[in-house]
Amino acid sequence: QLTGKWYTLGLASNSNWFKEKKHLMKMCTTVISATPDGNLEVISTYPKGDHCEKRNSLYTKTEQPGRYSYKSPRWGSSHDIRVVETNYDEYALVATQISKSSGSSTMVLLYSRTKELSPERLKRFTQFSREQGLAEEEILILPHTGEERGLQE
């Protein structure tokens, strides 16, 4: 039910890369499809300078519904991904615990089916991020790029 196209409207994280890059971050698209064995293939497109970068990840389902794991070959990190709440046709709130040898971090994503979400949903994302121990400056509502139309290829 999570499958299909989503826009990433909100991103919150206490990781170092987020602190360094958050002023550059823009809204991007994510396409989720289910594999025959119940895992999720996640293709994220990030606006990067004057081009778009695609990243493919395979989220492996766990015993717990709505919970997935992912190992990043690129960063050597383990991700514990939880779909916290969603109504599938409007928004999804996803929390990820990331562990690697240098320490762990928390990331919260707000996905939306459209480029706009109600203030209540945005407020819920901020509130939930705070409940995960994230500070105000670690919570970001991503700006539109104006490029989103070009990201659909």
UniProtKB/TrEMBL annotation:
**Is ATP-binding given among the entry's keywords?**
no
Reaction catalyzed: prostaglandin H2 = prostaglandin D2
**Lipocalin/cytosolic fatty-acid binding domain: from which residue to which, for each copy?**
3-145
GO BP terms: namely: mast cell degranulation; prostaglandin biosynthetic process
Location in the cell reads:
Cytoplasm, Perinuclear region; Golgi apparatus; Nucleus membrane; Rough endoplasmic reticulum
- SUPFAM superfamilies membership: Lipocalins
MF terms from GO for this chain are:
prostaglandin-D synthase activity; small molecule binding
GO CC terms on record?
A: extracellular space; Golgi apparatus; nuclear membrane; perinuclear region of cytoplasm; rough endoplasmic reticulum
State whether it acts alone or in a complex, and with which partners, per the record: Monomer.
Q: Which family does it belong to?
A: Belongs to the calycin superfamily. Lipocalin family.
Q: What is this protein called?
A: Prostaglandin-H2 D-isomerase
